[in-house]
């Protein structure tokens, strides 16, 4: 899609991808008819998050036959939220939808989201999973615990069971781009904006191909980023733990003096050992929680970019078009200069 065509784009669909070569054919076959059926100008911004498989090559092949498809390839694997940031930064549509390539979130809901946003003047439309029976029991349990905790720490404005499948207006996208956050968690940042919002509910489907890109380690990391990035509750927890430890020590001190006065003391190391473990554990927990916040401050001070662009097919196409135009102009000027009065003088 040329730069001139993108200028009037109504809808951009951002798709972060990491090693999705198995899912790509099914994704394209299902997504393109949905978007073509809208009858509006659109683009699909596929962000290849440093894939180690053939994802980038397949995207180039698909783009040859699908002019609305645009690939933004990152130089290294930067993470799902960073890839989503790159897509939002480069999308040009008046509305921007985000969806994963695994088709667990149905593309058929995007027209419904767009219609709801335009009809009611909404800046945000969340895709809410009302049925997660296709997920494992462990996944449902951990996801439920995550949203329960976030709604209590961050606020009730965080919709339960709403991931990164959503539609944003251009105003909401620009507001997100102005935020200084280095480690972004969009499922919390977007509700924090407080823009008018609505919901579209759907049944979560099974992954079309490949394996999940959110194993337990990444889920834990997301939870830590969510808690430390949006709440000071862990620091207050450290204070409460210290208070509990202090009063526990006072009780043990009183107990020790009472036993000593009644002459019932028995030499031993168990009570001392347990007491030291208790106090030491509390201190380590507090230091660890403090370290999480110091690490976020350290990252913010560094101000390193969340991603680096290795390739943008839209930018490359625009550069080639400009080069061809310049060449044609130069050829025209050269032909014209050979027919002027100076040409006869040279003869």
TrEMBL record:
The keyword Zinc is annotated on this UniProt entry: no
Whether Transferase counts among this entry's keywords is yes
Major subcellular site: membrane
Stated name of the protein:
Putative glycosyltransferase
Which residues does the UniProt record annotate as the domain Glycosyltransferase 2-like? 12-175
Q: Write out the similarity annotation.
A: Belongs to the glycosyltransferase 2 family.
Q: Where is this region: Disordered?
A: 319-347
Q: Which GO terms describe its cellular component?
A: plasma membrane
The molecular function terms of the Gene Ontology recorded here are:
glycosyltransferase activity
Q: What residue spans carry the Gly residues bias annotation? A: 329-347
**Which keywords appear in this protein's UniProt record, sorted alphabetically?**
Glycosyltransferase, Membrane, Transferase, Transmembrane, Transmembrane helix
Gene3D superfamilies assigned to the protein according to its UniProt record, in alphabetical order: Spore Coat Polysaccharide Biosynthesis Protein SpsA, Chain A
Topology with respect to the bilayer: Multi-pass membrane protein
